[in-house]
């Protein structure tokens, strides 16, 4: 959940994790969070509804691990079962500059 300060332009002053309820600010006061977003269209039970969840780093990666686990359980005895457990086999993982890509952390 974004916490805003009223003014000429509503400005986000903090982002609260929608799972644990804690601030996502790091040691330097900058928000560090992941976002899960869904926008449901025609034919869906939730047609016209949009969802945006903000998660702290810990909760985000806990959710990713749980989704990966659920996917792995469905195919664990198939040939590709163990391949799901590799980091880049699930989601979109971009490596940081220190690992050979992206911006430095």
Short description:
This protein has one helix and four strands. By secondary structure, it is α+β, with helices and mostly antiparallel strands.
Quickly count the helices: 1
What is the first-to-last residue Cα distance? 24 Å
Structural class: alpha+beta
Strand order of the largest sheet: 1-2
DSSP strand count: 4
Global morphology: flat
If you compute it from the alpha carbons, what radius of gyration comes out, rounded to the nearest whole angstrom?
A: 18 Å
| Proportion of beta-strand residues | 15-25%
Bin the helical content.
10-25%
Q: Pick out the low-confidence regions.
A: none
Q: How many individual domains?
A: 1
What is the residue-mean pLDDT, rounded to a whole number? 80
Largest sheet: 2 strands, antiparallel
Provide the succession of SSEs: EEEEH
Q: Topology of this protein?
A:
Blueprint: E1 2-5, E2 11-15, E3 33-39, E4 50-56, H1 57-75
Antiparallel strand pairs: 1-2, 3-4
Describe the protein in words:
- It is a single chain.
- By secondary structure, the chain is an alpha+beta fold.
- It has one domain.
- The chain has one helix and four strands.
- It has one helix at 57-75, and strands at residues 2-5, 11-15, 33-39, 50-56.
- The strands form two sheets. The chain has a two-stranded antiparallel ribbon. A two-stranded antiparallel sheet has the order 3-4.
- β1 (2-5) and β2 form a beta hairpin.
- It is flat, with a radius of gyration of 18 Å.
Main attributes of the structure:
105 residues; alpha+beta; two-stranded antiparallel sheet
């Amino acid at each position: 959940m974004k916490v805003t300060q009223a003014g000429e332009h509503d400005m986000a002053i903090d982002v609260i994790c929608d799972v644990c309820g804690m601030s996502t600010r790091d040691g330097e006061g900058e928000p560090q969070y992941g976002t899960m977003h869904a926008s449901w269209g025609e034919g869906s039970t939730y047609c016209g509804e949009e969802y945006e969840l903000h998660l702290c780093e810990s909760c985000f990666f806990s959710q990713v691990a749980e989704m990966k686990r659920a996917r792995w359980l469905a195919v664990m005895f198939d040939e590709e079962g163990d391949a799901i457990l590799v980091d880049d086999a699930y989601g979109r993982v971009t490596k940081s500059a220190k690992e050979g890509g992206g911006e430095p952390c």
